[in-house]
Structures are given as C-alpha cells and as structure tokens.
C-alpha cells in the first residue's frame, strides 16, 4: 500500500527516550566527551547566548540530537494558550484589531504563546523522576558555564551514574577537562536526591587501571576481603532459603547462553540488597579478560570454593575453641585469621576499627566515593549540597569528610535518609573540628545513636569565660572563690578543646619571641544540627551535652526515643556543675536584695555570675 505525503506537511521529530541518543556514544559521529561537544559546536558555528533552554534546543538541532524534555522550553497547554490569547486580545487598545486578517491573528496568538512559554525564573533547573542520558548531560555541562543566571540544579530520582556525576562536578568547578571555555558555572545549589548509583564501564576501566599498581600483598588482601564479604551476603540471603550459587546464576541467565553481562548482574544484585561496590569489585577482579562477561565456570566455581574454605575455617575455629575451653586457655587475639579481622572493617560488622593499608587503597579507587566527594572538594563553589536518600555509608562519609575539610564555600549539607552510623559519625566529628564554613548539617533518618551524636558534637562549640568574668564571679561572695577556681580548671581541661600554636599567616613576618600563646581551636560556625528520627536515647545524657554546643546552636531531636522520653515527662538530671551554678545565682540574688536595702550600695551591684556560661551551648528542639 502506497501512502502519499504532502510536501508542505511538517516533519514530526521522534520523542525522547532514554536510549534514543545511544548512537552518539560510538561511531563516526560519537560525542565522547564535553570537549567533543565544544569542537562540533565550533565547526557548525554555534555561539551560546546565555539562555540555557534556548541554547540547548539550538545545539540539539545542530548536532541532530533528540533533546531531553526537561532541558527545553516547556510546551504550552491548550488552556493556558487560550487564556493567554484572550487576555492579550482584551488588552488591545485598537478596536479595529478585531477586523484584521486571520494571518495577523495567528501572529498575535503565536507571540502571546511565546511570552507565556518564557520561564519566569531562569535560575533553577529541575529534573524529577526522569532518567537522563549521557549525551544530554554532556550538552548540559557544555552550556552551564555560559548561563550566569542558572544557580540551582535539582536532580531527584534520576539515577545518575558515576560518569555523569563526575562530568557535572567538573563543569560546576570549572575544570579544564569539562569546561568549554566559558569559565566556571554559576551554580551554587545542587540537589542529587534519591539517586541510587548505577554502574557504567568507567567502573571497570578505573579498577583495571589501578589494580596493576598495587602490590601483591594488597591485591590478595583486597581479593580476600571483598570476596569474603560478598559470599557472606550471598550465603545469608540465598543459601539459607535453599538456593545454591548455581541456581542464582541460572536465574540471571535468561537466554541460557551461560553468559551474563554486568548490567543484568547488577539488577539482580540490587534486588539482593548487597553493597554495589563490593559486588562489582568482586566481579571486576574475576573478569581477567576485561570483557565484562563471565562464564558459568568463572562465576560459580570461585564462589563454591570460597564457601568451602569458609566452612572449613569455621569448623577449625570451633574445634580450636573447644580445645582451648577444655584446657582452660584463652584464645590469643593475635592469632585471629584474616576473615575475622576484615569483618570488623565492613559495613554492618562488629564494632571496632581495623587500620589497614588495603582498606585505604580501596577507599581511594572507589568511584562511588569520588563521585560524591567531588562536589565537596576545595575547588567546588557550591554553597548548598543535598545527597538525600542516596544510600551513603561509612566509606562515602570518609571521602566526603576528607574533601570537605579544606572547603571554604559549602554552608549547608543535607544527608537525610542515608545509612550513616556511629562509625561514620567519627569522620563527621573530625571534619567539623577542621571545617570553618559549614553552618547547617542535616543527618535526619539515619542510624545514629547516642554514642554517634557525642562523637559529632565533641569537636564543635566553645565555652569562653574571660578572666575578668571569673574575677567578678569570685568576688561577689567569698564562698564562691573555690567554685570559680574549679570551674576555670575544668574549662581548661574539658574534652574536645585543643590548644595549638598560634602561627603568623605572613611568611616574611618572623616571630622573635619564644613564648607560647594558646588559641582556642574549635568549630563555632555550626548553627543547626539535625539528628531527628535517629535511634538516639537517654534524654538526661543529651541534656548534659548542652555546654558542648556552639553559641546559639540548635539541635533538632524530633522523632527520636529521647524526644518521646522528654514528652512523657522525663526530666534531665542536672550535673554537679549546673547545680553549683544554680546555687551561685541564688546567693547572688540574696546579695542583690541586701544591697538594695542600703542606699549607699544600691548602685554598686555586680553582674550576675555564670550568666554568660548559661547562654552558651545547644538549644534543644524536642518537638
């Protein structure tokens, strides 16, 4: 059947889908990087105007790329189109405009539609619940430095992968590899929320690039550590239900060709709720040929062998424990095998620390950690960063804290709804001891307990009482002199206060004196710490942490067991120091009343003692 098409009929462009631009990732017309976008745009005479959405449509048309619907100007709905035309028509001052030709009326309608299509606020780009392809991200990174009005990027539930996040961080910071010559971007607010990480080929390239540089001992340690963690998770999640590794493999092998690609493998791994990095490092280590395809023997045989080794080691340990119990000899801690030592270092294992070179190397080559930490680096101009519900854990916080310690621009960090536990809180506390820019930290709906909260706040806040205040407080009543002296000694020896050498910032200025000058080295910039909906208990212990907070700081505790205890009438027990301060204020009130009776001493009333200390510290918000 033949169809006749009218030559005047407009060509209908295909709609955007997630894989429609995949041909641009390979072949002769491939767009391999942001630099390739710059070269192709220069060849075709493309000049950015500074309007992101308009420039995005133009460059997609030049490169014959299907534009992403979230990055172009939104289409006008019929109701809005009709209302805009009617409003424009009613405001027409010329009454003869109603009798003009239809062509003029069409021009008025199109002009009115263009006015409505133009966004009222060009400073925010939001993408919510929609996947983003790599080609669109490259075009976005190319145009970001040219639009100086675009200050906010919001990606919610978009499943950005490692490579896309790295391109965004380079474009925002103005890196030479991603920057197309327009300077650094004007983006200051970034939201990457509900972003479960996806793995690309970049992961395997980075792993195979870094592994040959490692020593043999470290490589064996990494193999043993990651495979043991992987097999423990698989055995607990599947073998307990009667499944075997061979059954799991056949369930993944839908085509029954004994080959499973890493994409299919990762989908199954996500359903099993395993650690993505651990599984893919295991996969990459056994993928010797680097073809991202494992046969049945390559995948199943090592798993079965490792399971047998673990079972044999477990039986040997149990036999040794029985022999030691019979002889009454305690098992030596130095003789613990390698698997038990590494169990203390993985997420969800027993409490404890293992300082190990292999784990440090694993932290450095982890692409997930580097992708998130790049937005908090020293070169990043962002002031607000949100990683909400991205399943960030201890290893991510270690990388973010190391980068954020030298950052001077970030003020707000949102880590709500992740997997931050007490071990990750140690890295946060160490960060706050060095950072001087962060003012708001949101750790709501995580896994922090009272120990983790104490590990965070012991490095922040300050208690400052000058010598003059101490003298006034001690001179009000003679009985208070001993209390003031003990308070002063307590402040000098309080935990979390570090006294360091005061160094001149100018190198050419030399300090000829050898005297020590103590400087208070604690974070006083944090204003809000949100630990709501965490398993934090013991209302009385939290109340005793008041003096550890910064001046005017707010600690949010809504939805915690401690807040429930406080609402049910639980009162915080007062410390001895707090009770001493209360008695001092009572004595001060009696002294003021006595001096007020005498007209000669009525005007000689000293300032209240310890009032300045009372005003410092946290302000608790229980509900």
Descriptive labels:
623 residues, alpha/beta, Leucine-rich repeat, LRR (right-handed beta-alpha superhelix), 4 domains, nine-stranded parallel sheet, two-stranded antiparallel sheet, 24 helices, 7% strand, globular, disordered N terminus
Query: Helix/strand/pairing class, anyone?
Result: alpha/beta
> pLDDT average, as an integer?
67
Largest sheet, in brief, is:
9 strands, parallel
Low-confidence stretches: 1-6, 77-96, 101-120, 176-180, 329-363, 463-467, 491-521, 571-577, 610-615
User: How many DSSP H or I helices?
Assistant: 24
What is the spatial order of strands in the main beta sheet? 1-2-3-6-7-8-11-12-13
Gap between N and C termini: 72 Å
Determine the strand fraction and express it as a percent band: 5-15%
* Basic shape: globular
Number of domains: 4
Can you describe this structure?
The structure is a single chain. Helix 16 (394-404) links the parallel strand 6 and strand 7. By secondary structure, the chain is an alpha/beta fold. The protein is 45% helix and 7% strand. A nine-stranded parallel sheet has the order 1-2-3-6-7-8-11-12-13, with no helix packed on it. Strands 4-5 form a two-stranded antiparallel ribbon. It has a two-stranded antiparallel sheet with strand order 9-10. Helix 3 (78-90) packs across helix 4 (102-117) and helix 5 runs parallel beside helix 6. Residues 94-111, 309-335 have a biased composition (Basic and acidic residues). InterPro entries: EF-hand-dom_pair (IPR011992), Leu-rich_rpt (IPR001611), LRR-containing_protein_71 (IPR053040), LRR_dom_sf (IPR032675). Residues 94-113, 309-337 are annotated as: Disordered.
